[in-house]
Each structure stands twice: as structure tokens, then as C-alpha cells.
Amino acid sequence: GGSGLSLGINCNKSTIADLADANGVSGYLKFTTPFTADTPPIAIGSIISHEKVTREGTSSYDIGYYSLYAESRHIKISKVNLDARVAVDGYKNGETTSQVDYLITASYPWKQSTVFQMNMERKLFLPYASESYIHEDYTAINPDLKPQSSTKIRVGGSWYVSQDVSLNASIFRENISDYISWGTTTDRLYEPINIGEVKLFGVELRLKHNLTKKLVQSISLINTQSDNSDNKVVPYIPKARLMIGLEYADNKDLTVSLDGEYIGERYSSIDDSNKKLASYFLVNLVANKQVNDTLSCTFDWENLLDEEYETWDGYYGNPTIVK
Predict the structure, then answer these.
(1) What is the distance between the alpha carbons of residues 74 and 84, in angstroms, rounded to a whole number?
(2) How many CB atoms lie within 10 A of CB 156?
(3) How far is the C-alpha of 288 from the C-alpha of 176, rounded, in Å?
(4) Is residue 242 a contact partner of residue 262, using CB atoms and an 8 Å limit?
(5) In angstroms, rounded to a whole number, what is the distance separating the alpha carbons of residues 116 and 123?
(6) What is the pTM of this model?
(7) In angstroms, what CA-CA distances link 122 with 47, 169, 200, 301?
(8) Alpha carbon 111 to its chain's center
(9) Most buried by CB count within 10 Å: which residue of 55, 129, 187, 238?
(10) Which pLDDT tens digit goes with each residue over 89-142?
């Protein structure tokens, strides 16, 4: 095949329960190199998004995101299929931080109903400039703040129990060096703290069931355990995470999904194992209609039940949002 170039732009306007308005613009540009059956394509692309939130009677804030990436899929080595991706991501919320990562995924079709999978991901996270200076008197450099690096390995497989039922199971382990977590100081201000070496390991299960030709049910469970070399508590990582989904799709390009997500208790302090954030359950509703080849309409209702929950100690998540 020949080379390809694709361009997309998305604009959205959101209304948040506390009378805040959010206007967002995002776009992508993707170039694919020429390819043949023996040479898989390489895609080089970028994603840029910007969102501005204005609350009535208060100041507004801007959030930005960009990603530059290169990826190649379906690289065949005997019966093994390889996918590879390298990316540089950046986030801006008053200041800019960056992340560099690469991901390699391998899959092997052992039987017609069984596929084994393995992937390895390596990340390097660069902190905000101000984070490097938030230390003690808030003018001196934080000497313990270093770029956070991690390596994650996942091994598992997919089993197609029948034509309508499939099960995916995997185990994972992630080693993180110079893990940066936010903690409170004596004057109750937050500062980034290097808690050293952190190891995460766990199990992930996903069951998918086609109830009818148009209706699909899915259940996912993730259990994560953590360990720190300095015997500190690793905060804000839930041990249990459960996701339940129901998706409807017809032959007229209409899809509707109703999803529920349970987040279990999380530690909220690196020094106090008795201090925890409460668990919560969120429900989201999304509907999409493909009008024609170039136009689609989307309705997105986040936090349908208007659940009140904490993402950080003292910091609450978004109330119900309609986009």
C-alpha cells in the first residue's frame, strides 16, 4: 500500500454541576509510511489538545496535552506478532511536564481459541519545574526530587470459551525508581516527596459476554499490591478496582455504553497506614452516532449519579459533567 495522511479536529463544550463551563479543542495528525506484505508500516503522528474551564465568579484555568509518537504494528517473526511504540507526552496545567516511554507487545496464537501475550513498557517522567523548588522554605531546590523511571512487564493470555464468551487474564509487575508522591508538610501544604524504590504487582481479569448480537457485557477486576524499600506506605493506588460495562451497537452506526467503575480504599499518607481515602463508585453514559463518513455526534454524561469522592486527601473529583 501507499503512504497515508489523516487529520482530525474535535471541539466540545461541557457543563459541570457547579456552573462551570469547559471548552475543549483537540486534534491529531498521523502520517503512515508506504508498506508491503513484508514491510509493516510505520506511523508517525501527533496529538494536541487544549481545554479551558471557567467557573462563575472565580478564575479560569487552562489544561493542555500533546503527544508525539512513532509506532509499527503487526511485525511478524515466525508465528509471533510484535507491536512497538515510542512516544513523548507533555502536560500543561500552568506549567509543563513531560514523559518519555516505549512499549513492546508480543502475542502468540497457541491454539485457535488461545492467544498468549506479553508486553514491556519503560517510562521516564520529568517533574514540573516548580516541584523541584517546593522544599522547606519553598525557594531552595528539592534535593531528593529526580526523574521517576519505571519498567512494567505483563504476561497473560486470552481464551475464547465459546463464540460469545471470552476471558482475558494476566499478571503484572512494575518496578519504579525515585517514586514521587505528594505529601503534606507541617503547615499542611503539599510537596512532592521521593519515597524511593516501589514495586507494584497484581492480577487483572476481564470477562466479555455477547448477550445478543447487539448487546455486550464486560466485567474487569484489577488487584494491585505494593511494596516500598523504605517501608513507607505507597499512597493513592487502590488495591481493588472493578469495572462493569454494558454496550449496545446496532447496524445504523449507533453505539451506547453504560459503564460503572469501583475504586477501593487508598492510602493517603506515606507515613500513616491508618489514614485512607474512602472507596467510591462512578457511573458514566456515552452515546455515539456516526452520521456519515466525516461526521459523528457524541453525548457524554460523566458521573451520572453525582457521586462525591476524593481523588487526593482533601481534593474532590468532578461532579456530574455533561458533554
Answers:
(1) 9
(2) 18
(3) 38
(4) yes
(5) 24
(6) 0.78
(7) 20, 22, 14, 34
(8) 31
(9) 238
(10) 887 765 567 888 999 999 999 988 999 999 999 999 876 655 554 545 555 556
